[in-house]
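Onboarding guide, step 5: your first structure request.
Type a short instruction followed by the sequence, for example:

Predict the 3D structure of this protein.
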Amino acid sequence: MILPIYLYGQPALRKVAHDINKDYPNLKELIQNMFETMYKAEGIGLAAPQVGLDIRLFVIDLEPLAEDDPKYQGFKKVFINARILEETGEEVSLQEGCLSIPGINENVTRKETIRIKYVDENFVEHDEVYSDFFARCIQHEYDHIEGKLFIDKISGIRKQLIKSKLNNMIKGRVNCFYKVKAVQNKP
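The system replies with structure tokens like these:
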């Protein structure tokens, strides 16, 4: 089932999410719906707060990038109760976008390597290190479960330049080809 993606301004995007256990209701169905929603929106990552849930869950599938770079082949993961333990290496600036902030892309600086602890969809624990674009994608989705957005990491000047677009988004004035939920949309 395709879920509506919450847009900038929705309070759900600013809540720090909480851990879940393997008895979370309809978890397998939720994960399947999140992947389906992400694919429909042509994204490569989606976090539970982006579909209105304040739980520590996000999904990533970099397979669409494998055509240009085979290292992304088969990188499809579910992260539950994730905690980034370390961010190391050089700071790298790269342009990012977000399904919850359509039409806006900005340069974001992030550390190039992370160590993350999480459980997968079967509640098997993992402690892994990722670098480069893998780390960036994970950091971006991780920020969502911490109540942060990529625009929080851009300069004040850049924020001023996109302010009118963000205000329009809050008012539901946004063109999206995927299902969204803006602040003033009715349920």
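Each response can be followed by summary notes, for example: The two ends are 17 Å apart (CA to CA).
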